Amino acid sequence: MSTSDVLLSCEGVTRRFGGLVALDQLDLEVKRGDILGFLGPNGSGKTTFFNVLTGIYDFSDGQAHFAGENISKHSAQAVYRAGIARTFQRSRMCLSLSLFDNIMVGNHKHLNLGLGFNLFRRGAFARDYEQRYEQARELVRVFSPNLADRMSEAVGGFPMLDRRRIEICRALISQPKLLLLDEPSAGMTHEETHQLMGDILSVREHTPELSIIIIEHEMSVMERITDHCAVLNFGKKICEGTYQDVVNNPQVREAYLGIE
Ligand SMILES: Nc1ncnc2c1ncn2[C@@H]1O[C@H](COP(=O)(O)OP(=O)(O)OP(=O)(O)O)[C@@H](O)[C@H]1O
To answer: Entry's Gene3D superfamilies (predicted)?
Structure first.
């Protein structure tokens, strides 16, 4: 792998909570345009890695370079501005707000929030709003043309599959270089999960340079959408390779799949 292909490079990333080592000396690389599957049993440190990388938790040790920049000491806002966006395991939406408003929450780095602009430059504000609206709508259309016609409806009226789509759009609207998806299938049926994964593959077709790390327990999803996978157990990386490599690895079968 040439250095310029590497978007994210983590070395020895460690996170301790008191005596518990939730993430233990993790080395990981993600190439530009790659989809990395992040696997491991419950409590193995996957979400902790997302929280450390996105500045929610401090690094206890180690470092991460993203697009050539050391982001180990960045705040959550600085990580977002550098180009990493994420979704959360539990759906986090403002249910009474419209689909469009929920997506715009994710776009504040591109919005002009100046009081003078918003109060006195009404024409420029209206043009800006129109442009943002169309941009959000185009993005939603990649997921579902039907949803793109319902931009002003309150999110509380949408089923879980659509809420997950909207959450991913909220992350994508900031045009990140790296998207972190934390168990996007949580709370969905098998069929809905497969539809959502089809959507993620469409996103990839539209933005081939986007890299994705996805945490997911549904193995068929990992098989379908990932370029390679890394497996954690008790905070340590125990295996890395293609989906086939990791599912055939004896350590992974024992730790994750419960097969000896
Ligand atoms: N804020 C915290 N304070 C203390 N311990 C924590 C904290 N966050 C996570 N942990 C612990 O760190 C370990 C790793 O948790 P984490 O949520 O990262 O696992 P996970 O692999 O994402 O699990 P799951 O698949 O269930 O979401 C667990 O033992 C968890 O209890």
So the answer is: P-loop containing nucleotide triphosphate hydrolases (3.40.50.300)
- Which bin fits 174, alpha (ψ -120 to 50), beta or left (φ > 0)? alpha
Question: Which of 112, 146, 174 is the last residue in one of the domains?
Answer: 174
Cα distance between residue 68 and residue 9, in whole Å: 9
Count of structural domains within the chain: 2
* 158 and 181 share one domain: no
CB 44 less than 6 A from any atom of ligand 1: yes
Reported ipTM: the value is 0.95
Q: 42 CB less than 6 Å from ligand 1?
A: yes
Whether residue 197 is found in the same domain as residue 76: yes
**Domain interval for residue 127:** 95-174
Q: Kindly state the helix (H) or strand (E) to which residue 180 belongs, with its residue range.
A: strand 178-182
Has residue 2 got a pLDDT over 60? no
Ligand 1 contact via 104 beta carbon (within 6 Å): no
Contact 241, 228 (CB under 8 A): yes
| pTM (2 d.p.) | 0.91
